[in-house]
Amino acid sequence: MLLCLLLGILATLIAFPETPIGRALHRVLVEPLARRLNRIRPGHLIFAAALIGFATGLILLFEWEGVRLVGMAAPEVMSWLAMFDAAAVLDLAAVAVAMAATTRFRTVRDRVLMMAGQMVTVARTVLTRGRQRAFKARPTAPKPPRPDDPDPAWAGYAFG
């Protein structure tokens, strides 16, 4: 019965748009929806695509449990979207990306400072090494041959 009612309203809007009932239906059903659709920006579409992708990932990863998760989250997500404008959410995401980039910059800066400190330490040791006394090897006396050592001339043939 509801389907027949909706099809009748659609037929009235299409076939008789200039009648008083057609104009009233157009004013009540079409114009508010057209105004709301006119407010959609590219950021809204990107955010909706991200939510759809997240929901699809949950469903593919967890199968029926993912369907239940998405079903349980749907009312909260809809109320959240109704409270916040998607542009504000995208601004928050941009702030989060900027904070992450700042943290990475600080990490790189700290790494560069650490490496510079290590290079200074190495340079100091190289420069001070020239001032130290040179190591002189003491000559050692050769060991006397042991009585069980083979003759060096025949040593290659004895173990070869």
Question: Describe it for me?
Answer:
The protein is an all-alpha fold and 160 residues long. The chain has a domain at 85-122. The protein is built from 6 helices and no strands. The protein has helices at residues 2-15, 20-38, 42-62, 64-83, 86-129, 155-158. Helix 1 crosses helix 2 (20-38). The mean pLDDT is 78.
Provide a short characterization of the protein structure.
This protein is mostly helical. Helix content is 76%, strand content 0%. It has a domain at 85-122.
Cα gyration radius (Å) = 41 Å
Report the biggest beta sheet as strand number plus sense, adding barrel if it closes. none
Poorly predicted ranges: none
Care to count the β-strands? 0
Give the H and E element order: HHHHHH
Q: Helix/strand-derived class?
A: mainly alpha
Strand content: under 5%
Alpha carbon gap, first and last residue: 106 Å
The rough form would be described as: elongated
Number of helix segments?
A: 6
Assembly state: single chain
- Percent of residues in helices: over 70%
**Average pLDDT taken over every residue:** 78
